[in-house]
Specification:
By secondary structure, the protein is mainly alpha-helical. It has 15 helices and no strands. α6 packs across α7, α6 packs parallel to α8 and α7 crosses α8. The longest helix has 28 residues. It is elongated, with a radius of gyration of 24 Å. The relative contact order is 0.12.
């Protein structure tokens, strides 16, 4: 059946909007820092993914449309993450800079960005400085990777360190939480203050060891004993799959962001909100 003039106009408009999305995605790719771009061949393939999104926007295949919808959803989630870090770090510029560093970090580890972002927010909330987060996450990540853990264990370690910082002193409760995960926290602390484990425990119980002393001892101990284990784990099958997931997620966020811009989805949703509010009233 032949298309009507109106239907042809709709298709042409969709084609134009889809082309804008693809152009925006390609420009976003060019603006990424070199570590994130990996190599030109990889990003040439990503440009092919962007062009595939163009077909999806024209409605070719339910699965393709689903990918577009997921991309928009993930872009929305990233926007919320950016807002959260903006609030914690004081400016959008600081948040964007930190998130770029975190993306770089996630790309080199067997852990996924979302979990690392959550643990980073946790550390910031406990009062750790932004410039200390990646070094801390490196020490924690190496220890957890060496012990065969994942995002849940990373969250437990960062929470224990944060709770200790909040108390202002070395705490037996948090030290035991670390020990339960397989991290010899008491040994690290005893070595740092030049004594044995029983004496370190007694001094901690008496409240004479500051949180900063204990946290520094644990971080340095983890780096010394487990340093480099994330790199080793990242080259295993599960580590490679994690890296692949991060790469796909980042690509979908870029595509989703450009779709939101090209189709003014925020404006369309706001119009719908206004309309439903008018109907309700």
């Amino acid at each position: 059946m032949a298309l009507t003039a109106a239907e042809i106009q709709i298709l042409l408009k969709a084609q134009d909007q889809a082309s804008k999305v693809v152009q925006g995605v390609n420009q976003s790719i060019k603006n990424l820092s070199p570590p994130l771009r990996a190599n030109q061949a990889d990003w040439d393939r990503l440009s092919g993914v962007a062009n595939a999104a163009k077909l999806a926007l024209l409605g070719i295949g339910v699965a393709a449309v689903g990918v577009v919808g997921k991309s928009v959803q993930m872009a929305g989630q990233m926007e919320q993450t950016r807002i959260a870090f903006t609030s914690m770090l004081g400016s959008a510029q600081a948040a964007d800079s930190f998130l770029r560093e975190l993306f770089d970090f996630a790309a080199k580890t067997p852990f996924e960005f979302a979990g690392l972002a959550q643990s980073s927010q946790q550390l910031l909330a406990f009062g750790f400085a932004a410039q200390d987060i990646i070094p801390m996450m490196t020490a924690v990540g190496d220890a957890v990777a060496a012990l065969g853990g994942g995002e849940f264990e990373i969250s437990r370690v960062t929470r224990a360190l944060g709770q200790m910082k909040a108390k202002g002193r070395a705490s037996a409760q948090e030290m035991m939480q670390l020990a339960e995960l397989g991290i010899p926290a008491w040994q690290f602390l005893a070595d740092a203050i030049g004594t044995d484990i029983p004496t370190a425990m007694k001094r901690a119980e008496a409240g004479t060891i500051s949180a900063s002393t204990a946290i520094d001892a644990v971080l340095k101990g983890m780096t010394g004993q487990f340093g480099g284990m994330m790199d080793v784990q990242s080259r295993t099958l599960n580590g490679l799959i994690s890296t692949l997931k991060d790469n796909v997620s980042q690509s979908m966020v870029i595509i989703g962001t450009e779709i939101i811009k090209a189709f003014d989805l925020k404006g369309k949703v706001q119009d719908l909100i206004n309309f439903t509010a008018w109907v309700k009233d």
